[in-house]
Amino acid sequence: MPRYDNNLTVIGGGSAGLIAAYIAATVRARVTLVERARMGGDCLNTGCVPSKTLIQSARVAHTLRTAGSYGMKPVTPEVDFAAVMARVKAAIAAIEPKDSVSRYQSMGVDCVAGEARILDRHHVAVGDQVISTRSLIVATGAAPLIPPIPGLAEAQPLTSDNLWDLDALPARLLVLGAGPIGCELAQSFARLGSQVTLMDMTDRILPREDPDVSEHLVRVFRREGIDVRLGCKAERCNPLAGGSGTLVAASAGGRVEIPFDRVLVAVGRRPETGNLGLEALGIEFGPSGTLAVDEHMRTAVPGIYACGDVVGPYQFTHMAAHQAWYAAVNALFGRFWKFRVDYRVVPWATYTDPEVARVGLSRAEAEERGIPFEVTTYSLDDLDRAVADGRTEGWVAVLTVPGKDQVLGATIVGSQAGELITEFILAMTHGLGLKQLMSTIHIYPTRSEAAKLTAGAWRRAHAPEALLSWVGRFLNLLR
Questions:
Q1: Is this prediction's pTM over 0.90?
Q2: Residues 280, 282, 288, 293: is their CA dihedral positive or negative?
């Protein structure tokens, strides 16, 4: 067999690329990781870490305003936005060593900085250096999509990439796009003191969730002062100096003009595939520009694999890591063993307040696919710990096979929903039913009891009435 410099070369140092390189190094493969910008990718530098840090600062500001509900005088917070952003940068800096070049080099990964270009399936050029490799993994991620709205580019739009360079809080912030990123940032900026307008051309926010979830979050947003505009299609932007201007949009009620000091675009993300030389190699692309891969994460070109946001269909850090395991193992050992990527249990959370977390099917998806189901709903205002915390807003909804306790999906709306969903993820992954969750001891009083109490609600709805009637008569004889 021909000999190469590497067993594996990974292009992209974000979540997917880092995990792929880590796995290769762990099994003592010779691996090179190529990154053109910052190690850690979007998650560390512009995505998960900074956004959740900002969300927490905004939550503190909201708690001060609503302190009256906890028996204290409410306080109007004096937000030092520069200090808030400094805290964001400090959080990034604290986590950064985990994704650093020095750490990965200490594992045995050869880290190369620069723009990669794939010459053929066994050779990658980075500047003047050409790396020969038996297998390749493309993990170049995605970038914010800027829609072709006339005048928008001149308005210097903010995105999840450049937002973190802000040094002053916008007095009026217009957010285009009511998906998870748009909703999280709209609520955060409103809580920090911006006058926020959240606009989407569809008829509801968070369209991947069930309608009752979307409707509940809209009520929360409006209660907190966010101007939610749905069914509005942007037509043009009239920019002024410094990023301000007005947006002209068409709605059911006619044409509207929305003034803003800054506009934040959160309408989706596009795969980063340019300048890699993929087209010349015969790599196939999906309808949205993602790289087409099979169930083993292979592209149409033998020896070239792909994973993460550049592939989709789920643009989550945890899914990028999940795919990276399959891509790395198959790239290294695919001649002997192949593993099919497992999408049976895919969880996610949106970090609004209340949070929204889901795993498996929603009601809408089950109906669309014609899958029979039952729904068990448990309201968090019945949960003792939620009552004690003053955080009773929300519910747990679990879909099960009719007449059985097998979990098909779960949605949680409420405080710490992203943590609470884990029990249902575990149940679906390992085939545990609601009866097993109900028979598991949960600490009292905790929010995690919500899973047990939901399972109890299911059990009561499926109580064996005939048997219980017989047992009642039998016990009556024993009195």
A1: yes
A2: negative
